[in-house]
Design a protein that fits this description.
The complex is a heterodimer. Chain A is built from 8 helices and no strands. Chain A is mainly α. In chain A, helix 1 crosses helix 8, helix 3 packs across helix 4 and helix 5 packs antiparallel against helix 6. Chain A is flat and about 70 Å long. Chain B is α/β, with parallel strands linked by helices. Chain B is globular and about 50 Å long. The chains are: A mainly alpha, B alpha/beta. Chains A and B meet through helix 5 and helix 6 of A and helix 2, strand 7, helix 3 and helix 5 of B.
Amino acid sequence: MGNINLQELMPAMLSGTVTSLNIFFLTLLISLPLGLLIAAGRMSRLKIIRYPVQVYLLIMRGTPLMLQLFFFYFGPYYILGISGTSRFTMAIVAFGLNYTAYFAEIYRGGMEGIPLGQHEAAAALGFTKNQTFLKIVLPQVIKRIIPPMGNEFMTLVKDTALARVIAVSELFDVAAKAASGSVSTAPFIVAAVFYLIMNAAVGQAFSFAERKLDYYR
Amino acid sequence: MMEILSVKQIYKAFGSSQVLKDISFSVSKGEILAVIGPSGSGKTTLLRCVNQFETIDKGEITVCGEKMVSYNGKETVYAGKAQLRNIRLKIGLVFQNFNLFPHFTVLRNITEAPMAVLKKSREEAESTAMNLLGKMGLADKATQYPYQLSGGQQQRVSITRAMALSPEILFFDEPTSALDPELTGEVLKVIRGLAEEHMTMVIVTHEMAFARDVADRVVFMDGGVIVEEGTPEQVFGSPREERTRQFLLRYSQQ
């Protein structure tokens, strides 16, 4: 395992983990609501809204997240001449816009899976469009999208490691630096355990939510 | 007799196929109209037009004296949003596939619209709902979810849900077509019960014996037109039109 002092390593690894968790939660804070808006745009009958949204989805899902991180970090300087953008902020922007695209498609899948009859029954009963969405459609969409969302959340936990490419010192960055400094694989193993713990928690949260919504079919 | 629904010379096409041609009929208060006809005859489209799920190309629809849509010689003119919604609340609709809300209990399926739309208090909505459920023989199902019920029970709940808004007229879109034969009886019994209370109803149905028995008037549609209209005795007993005879013959052979 090489010559490494775990007691010295731990504080750095923990602070890297906090950074990773910050990326994780801030990305969700941006992407979960914004994804809903983008999904609505994707389903719009107006081409002037739908087409740009489709282009956005294609770019975000069709290019590497790593490339997007570079683009958002270096783009402001090279393209616009703006300097001094924070690495962390730009990482959040890239993650946020990227995950918005994936969440939007999951929302859309969920909404398109709601039978037309649900909308018609609500309309026949006099519900407004907003009431229909909030009371009838959304609760059913949430139940349907829990499994694919669980996947996305777990992927996000692991994707936070990519922030390293623009030198955000998150968990993996700390581990990689410690490993090369000490000629040891121990930091990687510690990082792996940390990622596993985070994803185990995500998995638990999702199976709890699934059980909670199991009262109807 | 007070006219609840009046449909005058309506036309509807989907692309190049003309689905409704010059359809006119009216329904008076307390009257029960059965609409029969083969698949693709336009019955369901007609019902969807009256329920604002489709727009018509030409013609006039009036509900309880309120003009829902009229025709000025060039194009149809629909009432404003608020009035359309108001008209919608006068019409109850029972779907072939029930379309209950799966995430709500039976009780909430029934109380949600009175509370959210008519702004009734929970107490009032629930007591109305329990009352209606009692009449439908479903009082013990109030706390269950739709998936826990049989098809016949689900359809009775959906009738209850429509009745909870006290509509002036109730539309049924083939209410027993999605049910196993042994379950149609309980639904037809409920509709019969509403008939005895003089609920105004339009019933699109394939249940000929039921239509004959419960309806005051029968409309036979085929190919987007009303071929024949009359009392059940006339239409079923001595149909004037060859097409009606053919249709009834095919049904009696099944």
